[in-house]
């Protein structure tokens, strides 16, 4: 397995702002170092998004904060965590009223995360292949490697360290080596054959040199494939589908945790809850084997059982 190396995200003025924010969180709020580090990582993503969209981060509105969270394409738990981070950030900036408080909290869904069937994933891949190599790779990375949207859009060609492995920068800047399916490898090869050899990013921004595509651009690419396939979905549902496919193929929970790069096993166990369709199929397939001894039941025994 390749050994990943840590890379940075922010620099210059943004880095100075984040350093000041970290000090404020520690000195004035008493947050633990792990909490402060997570908040700083989240704010780094926020600042990058604002820069990408030409938005003054210190003058952002509630509508712009909502748009940012929506483009992240995350579940209720992560949505609420990011919202909480931005509330703290705007408190640090002394914004009153706080624009992040104008964004609603989301309720967690009951049951397992939403996922796609095998037929739906196949239809998405077929549609993405028709659209182009970049869209094909996006769909393959979500459904066959379980990558998050941010992890996909910021990939560099250097991250493809061998035919079977990618090095991915995940949540909180954590680096992980991710095994990849042959479908992903094939998509990588097709896109690489058409890529600019001097461009380090797999998905470079068409408008901002040296930057990856935005969350909104990635979402548009996915939506085109979803519309063509007739499969309403989001990139994060591709990740959920990857988890479901692993579990239904017999992988244990610890293996799925590693594949999804979950810090906590409790997050992975959300996927272990039975999907309704899986439960229906299991009930439909249920059968009881009756051997010869079971058939030697007398009328008297049947009558006694009925009376009981």
Task: Provide tags for this entry.
308 residues; mainly alpha; DNA polymerase, domain 1; hpI Integrase, Chain A; 2 domains; two-stranded antiparallel sheet; 14 helices; 2 strands; globular
Would you summarize the structure shown here?
The chain is mainly alpha-helical and 308 residues long.
Word description of this protein:
It is a single chain. By secondary structure, the protein is mainly alpha-helical. It folds into 2 domains: 91 residues, DNA polymerase, domain 1 (Orthogonal Bundle); 163 residues, Orthogonal Bundle (hpI Integrase, Chain A), CATH 1.10.443.10. Helices cover 55% and strands 3% of the residues. The protein has 14 helices and 2 strands. A two-stranded antiparallel ribbon has the order 1-2. α6 runs antiparallel to α8.
Determine the CATH topology of the largest domain: hpI Integrase, Chain A
Gross geometry: globular
Mean pLDDT: 85
CATH homology superfamily name of the largest domain: Intergrase catalytic core
The side-by-side strand order for the widest beta sheet comes to 1-2
Structural class: mainly alpha
N-to-C SSE string, H for helix and E for strand? HHHHHHHEEHHHHHHH
Question: How do the strands and helices of this protein lay out in sequence?
Answer:
Blueprint: H1 12-28, H2 33-52, H3 62-72, H4 76-92, H5 118-131, H6 133-145, H7 149-153, E1 165-169, E2 175-179, H8 182-194, H9 215-229, H10 235-248, H11 253-260, H12 265-268, H13 276-284, H14 299-307
Antiparallel strand pairs: 1-2
Helix pairs in contact: 1-2, 2-4, 3-4, 5-6, 5-9, 6-8, 6-10, 10-11
């Amino acid at each position: 397995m390749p050994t990943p190396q840590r890379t940075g995200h922010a620099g210059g003025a943004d880095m100075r702002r984040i350093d000041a924010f970290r000090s404020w969180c520690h000195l004035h709020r008493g947050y633990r170092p792990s909490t402060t580090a997570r908040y700083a990582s989240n704010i780094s993503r926020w600042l990058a998004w604002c820069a990408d969209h030409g938005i003054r981060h210190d003058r952002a509105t509630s509508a712009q904060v909502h748009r940012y969270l929506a483009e992240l394409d995350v579940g209720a738990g992560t949505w609420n965590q990011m919202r909480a981070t931005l509330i703290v950030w705007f408190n640090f900036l002394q914004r009153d009223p706080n624009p992040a408080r104008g964004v609603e909290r989301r309720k967690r869904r009951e049951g397992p995360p939403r996922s796609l069937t095998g037929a739906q994933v196949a239809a998405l891949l077929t549609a993405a292949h028709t659209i182009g190599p970049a869209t094909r790779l996006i769909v393959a990375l979500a459904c066959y490697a379980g990558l998050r949207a941010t992890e996909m859009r910021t990939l560099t060609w250097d991250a493809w360290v061998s035919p079977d492995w990618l090095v991915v920068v995940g949540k909180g800047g954590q680096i992980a080596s991710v095994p990849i399916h042959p479908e992903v490898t094939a998509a990588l090869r097709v896109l690489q054959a058409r890529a600019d050899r001097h461009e380090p990013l797999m998905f470079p921004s068409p408008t901002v040199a040296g930057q990856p595509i935005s969350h909104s651009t990635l979402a548009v690419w996915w939506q085109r494939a979803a519309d063509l396939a007739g499969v309403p979905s989001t990139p994060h549902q591709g990740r959920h589908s990857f988890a479901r496919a692993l579990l239904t193929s017999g992988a244990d929970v610890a293996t799925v945790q590693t594949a999804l790069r979950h810090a906590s096993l409790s997050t992975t166990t959300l996927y272990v809850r039975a999907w309704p369709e899986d439960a229906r199929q299991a009930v439909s397939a249920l059968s009881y084997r009756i051997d010869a001894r079971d058939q030697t039941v007398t009328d008297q025994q049947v009558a006694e059982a009925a009376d009981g």
